Amino acid sequence: MTEATVLRAHLTARFEVGRSATLDGLVPLYYERPAEGLPAHVRSGSALRRFENWLVIVQDDVQALAVRDVRGAIRPVLLPPHASGQRVFDDTLGNKREKLDLEACVVLPDGRLVAFGSGSLPAREQLVVWRGGNEPPILVAAGELYRELRATVVPPGCRLNIEGAVISASRLVLFHRGNDTRIAGSEPISAIAELDAAAFSSWLGGRGPLPVVTRVTTVDLGTERNVPYSFTDAVALDDDRIVVLACAEAATSAIDDGVVLGCRVGLLAGSTLTMVDVHEASGNRTTLKLEGIERRPGLATEFDVSVDVDEPSTPALLGRLTWEWR
């Protein structure tokens, strides 16, 4: 798609003073039966999506999905290993730049689960596709898709960083986390990119051309002590409304971690985005890094959320977020 045909808009979030969401019920995530070569715990919780009767926890630094059943038991679903044979990645192993960096996840109308690499490095321009059951997930090289996203979503020289994905109406909506501060004189800005969901599904199945970005909305999510809030995940409530997560993380680029200064949740409805702070049960504002969100079945105002602790030896957390957004 040519630049002239991409619809563009800008949105400034409205922060609601005096209202908040509550985070509680946090539990560490351990496998019921760990797989050989993996730690006994779920290392990260970069995205959540309900798939069949499971809650799928996407990990950015392990080539395995963590699948939680209705009993709360968690099993690993292995992805193909890296060419080196490794499935675990971090700085201590010297291979962090080779991780898939899976950060977002959707379930397509045809029943396939798709997890998205962030696109922040070449190794992260891949998708994971899983049909469920006993069929193993596959990796799909998606460099051409990420080139399209990079050309339309981020300024030249800035890293793409896809952190959320939803299917809403007929759209695949991707959420770019604007936290790359490496470019002098350029302020990082988060953005929402829209593609046709049917076109994406056809392309993914080898039945159609590359889907193009039809609309990009840059979003000002506010700041915390001069650190911008940026998207970390999203979940569609229906065809018109999407709940988003955002954190203010004092990191220098899209591939580094930093201190989290605050976390907010918001309701995106058309051209309006309303945000509130996330508080813990103690009443204090949380500084946990909420990276995944999924609506709880049958509940309008309760969500499962995952906490990525960015510490390889410490398990990710799963908790409940309660927000009276209506």
Explain what the structure shows.
The protein is mainly β and 326 residues long. It has one domain (3-322): 5 Propeller (Tachylectin-2, Chain A), CATH 2.115.10. It is 6% helix and 46% strand. It has 2 helices and 22 strands. Strands 15-16-17-18-19-2-22-21-20 form a 9-stranded mixed beta sheet, with no helix packed on it. Strands 1-14-13-12-11 form a 5-stranded mixed beta sheet. The longest helix is centred in the middle third of the chain and has 11 residues, at 143-153.
Tell me about the largest β-sheet.
Answer: 9 strands, mixed
* N-C termini distance: 37 Å
Strand composition percent:
over 45%
How many helical elements?
2
CATH topology: Tachylectin-2, Chain A
Overall number of domains: 1
Unreliably modeled segments: none
- Rg for CA atoms: 18 Å
Q: What CATH first level would be assigned?
A: Mainly Beta
- What's the CATH architecture name? 5 Propeller
What's a concise summary of this model?
The chain is mostly beta strands. It contains two helices and 22 strands. The chain has one domain: Tachylectin-2, Chain A (5 Propeller).
Topology:
Blueprint: E1 7-12, E2 14-28, E3 47-51, E4 54-58, E5 64-68, E6 74-78, E7 102-107, E8 113-117, E9 126-130, E10 138-141, H1 143-153, E11 162-168, E12 171-176, E13 190-196, H2 197-204, E14 213-220, E15 223-224, E16 227-236, E17 241-250, E18 259-269, E19 272-280, E20 290-295, E21 302-307, E22 317-322
Parallel strand pairs: 1-14, 2-19
Antiparallel strand pairs: 2-22, 3-4, 4-5, 5-6, 7-8, 8-9, 9-10, 11-12, 12-13, 13-14, 15-16, 16-17, 17-18, 18-19, 20-21, 21-22
